Amino acid sequence: MEIRSLLWKYTRDQNYFENGLVRNLRYEQWSGGEGEPLQNGLRFEYKSQTFTFALRLGEEECQELVKSMRQIHAFQLQDPAYPAVN
To answer: 37 to each of 29, 30, 31, 32, 57, how far by Cα in Å?
Structure first.
């Protein structure tokens, strides 16, 4: 899996992840901090870290993206040996 961060059509950041090591791909909401609205996006575990992307998508779009990604890639569901990282 490849995730790119773009700014004005230019790649700011680019990360590659081995599909077999991506676990627990999901839509999630979390606190934006005191006085801040809830934030949302897609999260997954890779090795011992949690990664977040698709921050500006709404819940419906995120759910559709997860569904499409799971149809293309054989991502692992939650692996008991690697619990979710908080």
So the answer is: 10, 9, 7, 6, 15
